[in-house]
Design goal:
Rossmann fold; single chain; six-stranded parallel beta sheet; 11 helices
């Protein structure tokens, strides 16, 4: 698609989803929900990207409902502050400072942290980054791709292979409504040509939605794989990465509890998702495709092969610089 086509598609998306994705849609739907209290006592959770924003809110609310939460992010200082705030909650928060843009850090999380605490009930792949300029990790991967897609995929697949998740675990992937704008495109996942940060992010999130459908098909209802998006939420990441968008819509953006709501509801209710495809939004399964052209993409096999290859390349980089 040309840049003009991208702009038209983005405009159609923005106008079409404005009432639904903002706080207007959330408040309208919330008025129809029953009031309830979740109980996660005895559960073990892992929440990535937990130092700020939606991830922090999910970790805090899970601990408030009795869960023991491994909170993972880069900032040790912010994670320690979160753990201190949770000291008087029914559950607990255990900070783990790691950079999850790196495959080496993901492997460390699996081998040194999760291996010591098997029996994970809930995994929330919340970590994400939207960059305005392209960058690469020390392992030779595009930073956005590695953070948003590759490492969450490796964390989920390796934790499953190592049997570190319970057989009925819930895996919740935090996506974005921006994925409606694009089809699955392997070539776009790490492209730095004519770079547009929001578009690159959308491609990562579209791939995440397709991967989730694939996992649901192969798991056959054992572990529950969900992918969701929180709507448009007032976070530091949005303010930093999309300043014009944030400034324009700030009065209408959702707060953090609203952004975290569907993830916590999915963990509490584990709804039966009868079809593999779809994305959860405001406690309901929505269509995975809503705009023209988004189905005209690559096959899932091409994506799986690419993730395998890039994960292996990053391991070779680790060995070379050891």
């Amino acid at each position: 698609m040309s840049r003009t086509g991208d702009t038209l598609q983005a405009t159609r998306f923005f106008v079409g989803f404005l009432p639904s994705f903002t706080n207007i849609g959330y408040l309208a739907r919330r008025s129809l929900w029953q009031q309830e209290t979740s109980d996660f006592s005895g559960q073990h959770w892992l929440v990535t990207g937990a130092s700020t924003g939606i991830g922090r809110e999910i970790a805090r609310q899970a601990a408030a409902a009795g869960a023991s939460v491994l909170a993972v992010a880069r900032s040790e200082e912010k994670l320690v502050a979160l753990a201190r705030e949770a000291e008087n909650l029914p559950g607990s928060i255990h900070p783990i400072a790691l950079d999850l843009s790196l495959v080496a850090s993901t492997e460390q999380l699996i081998e040194q942290e999760l291996a010591q605490r098997p029996g994970l009930n809930v995994l929330v792949n919340n970590v994400g980054v939207l960059l305005n300029t392209p960058s690469s990790t020390t392992e030779g991967l595009d930073t956005g791709f590695a953070t948003n897609l590759l490492n969450p995929w490796l964390l989920t697949s390796k934790a499953t292979e190592r049997e570190l998740l319970t057989v009925d675990a819930s895996i919740i992937n935090m996506s974005s409504g921006g994925m409606y704008n694009v089809p699955l495109s392997v070539a776009a996942l790490e492209s730095h040509d004519d770079y547009q940060g929001a578009l690159a992010y959308a491609h990562h999130k579209r791939a995440q939605v397709e991967l989730n459908a694939y996992l649901r098909r192969i798991e056959k209802g054992r572990r529950q794989h969900y992918v969701m998006h929180p709507g448009w939420v007032d976070t530091l990441g949005v303010e930093t990465s999309l300043p014009d968008f944030h400034r324009l819509l700030k009065p209408f953006l959702r707060n953090l509890p609203a952004g975290a709501d569907t993830a916590l509801w999915l963990a509490a209710h584990r709804p039966d998702q009868r079809r593999a495809e779809g994305i959860w939004f405001d406690r309901a399964l929505r269509a995975a495709h809503a705009l023209p052209g988004s189905r005209e993409g690559d096959e899932i096999e091409a994506l799986l092969a690419y993730l395998q290859a890039r994960g292996n390349i990053s391991r070779a980089e680790q060995t070379a610089f050891a």
